[in-house]
Target: A-type ATP synthase subunit B
Amino acid sequence: MSTQGGVQYSKIAEIKGPLVVVDGVESVAFDELVEIQTSEGKRLGKVLEVGNGKAIVQVFEGTTGLSVSGTSAKFVGKVMEMPVSEQVLGRVFDGLGRPIDGLPDPIAEKFLDINGAPMNPEQREYPRDFIQTGVSVIDGMLTLVRGQKLPIFSGSGMSHNILAAQVARQAAVVGTSDEFAVVFAAIGVQYSEAEYFRRSLEESGALKRSVLFLNLADDPAIERIITPRVALTVAEYLAYDLGIHVLVILTDMTNYAEALREISAAREEVPGRKGYPGYLYTDLSTIYERAGRLRGKKGSVTQMPILTMPSDDITHPIPDLTGYITEGQIVLGRDLFRQGVYPPVNILMSLSRIMKDGIGEGRTRADHQEISNQNYDAYSRAQEVRALAGIVGKAGLTGVDLKYLEVGDAFEKEFLTQGVDENRTIEETLSLQWKVVSLLPKNELTKVKDKFIDQYYKER
Model:
């Protein structure tokens, strides 16, 4: 029977996990929105597969409490869309884009397909502009550039959420009056974490230039598939329609991949590595590749996805595939975290692949790249000396080796460690980097030009 805006099918063949199989289906499209009507109300879903008169529908709110009899499906005839306008700024939504801050729905300027449209590669502009996060280790050594995708690889229980909230509060494009906004999507997080993000942005006044999407751990896992897509749709509208520079923070992408695995298992697909679907790479790329800049458009979308590596294993499929798609990674180290260092970034495992294009004269400072290289070199040598000291004892070390030990400690205590609310300028960050390497004799500074040594080196 036909109803307005779609075709109603009452025959539900079976319910399996988060999926509903509808029988006797004609002219239904992949990804089409479906309203599952029950005696208790409506639930939304989308078509995953069509064939032989059957449609497999993924139900966003889950299938708990549904029965084959008394449930009907209405195919709406369009894909899922997100209403967008400038009014979304300062608002808090659930994982499906419905307001949860007690305010009415924002008035929509337009409705956009949450799957986005692919960017024309020829129209992409190379990321070049520096974003100041106020976190020394990121600004100084793993610089975030406008239009980049730079993930944070963490482990369970570490301080990645505190770092994410700090970046969301402090991030700014320096040296311009361009508008800046943060879109924050929490995927499958605990209630206490979601409240921390909301409170953190509210108290600092950053909420008025932010949009929050909160999908909690007790929300249906299937909702997690939609949350990052809804958030990125809003980010693209703010960037390309309103000309705002947007930083998108997605935490935690591991929960997203787990939800994907759940659907894949329910569809009885052949599993890939560790039970994740074989198309995990392709699926993650449909999220990460929605970052960038477009020629002729003023705004940009920069992404910082956060994922917790199961068992701190960087070779696990989720961090492994994420590393292939994104331009670098910030890896948090368990050893530093145990020592109470915040943020506990293991810089020897981290890199920002397009850092070199966003720093230097006219962007940050002429000596930025070289002093950063010198810090990498010194810290890496310090780690070697620490290992050696563990074998031969400090008494067996040379004078220069002892200097490197000092540098390693100073790097962690003075440069790496900073307060949760401490917002350092790029000048302060670079000064700290010079302060650390100034513990070494001048002849050890092999990565820096003499003119910079004369200008910035201060013997300690």
